[in-house]
Specification:
By secondary structure, the protein is an alpha+beta fold. The chain has a single domain, classed as Alpha-Beta Plaits (2-Layer Sandwich). It is built from 4 helices and 8 strands, in the order E-H-E-E-H-E-E-H-E-H-E-E. Helix 1 runs antiparallel to helix 2.
Length: 170
């Protein structure tokens, strides 16, 4: 797992993607290890491709941050795209984190983890805060106190000329 240095000892607006896999505990230990390593590598590659960083990973779950090392205007949307590409159970929240020397702390971390833990297998749950930010571009269904991401709406092309034609007749 590659770590990107982030600003330290400051508050940052960050979107947190907490994801994981559930594997059969009866798997051979070596096979289990291979599957977990495959998940971890795939998670890191997808999160990084979408502009996020992976700061934490355990055997069966991983946490990606969007807006930690580099801030983008669309960090929330980047997290959703990464979660959809991963295709595994996930929780996503966005808000302010305090980024210290050793770790980050704040409500979005615990909410994203809790969303992941309560999500049905394969579901991507969004906090209400995230849903408010993406409701124009994401299709989501109510899921208790959260929203289950279904898909992203197709991007609408922006017309180059939206004003009226003046002095021309058609």
């Amino acid at each position: 797992m590659r770590r990107t240095p982030a600003a330290r000892n400051e508050r940052r607006q960050v979107t947190v993607l907490h994801s994981g896999i559930t594997l059969d505990s009866e798997l051979d230990p070596e096979a289990l290890h291979r599957e977990l390593a495959r998940f971890s590598d795939r998670f890191a590659a997808i999160v990084e491709r979408h502009g996020g960083t992976v700061e934490r990973s355990s055997a069966e779950s991983a946490v990606g941050f969007f807006g930690l090392a580099t801030t983008h205007e669309d960090d929330v949307l980047r997290a959703l795209r990464a979660a959809l590409e991963l295709g595994v159970t996930a929780g996503i929240d966005s808000g302010e984190l305090f980024v210290g020397e050793e770790f980050a702390s704040g409500r979005p971390l615990s909410r994203a983890r809790r969303l992941h833990e309560t999500a049905a297998d394969g579901a991507i749950l969004l906090s209400s805060d995230v849903h408010r930010l993406v409701e124009q571009v994401a299709v989501a269904e109510p899921a208790g106190d959260a929203w289950q991401l279904v898909d992203l709406r197709p991007e609408q092309p922006v017309p180059l000329h939206t004003g009226p034609f003046v002095g021309r007749s058609f």
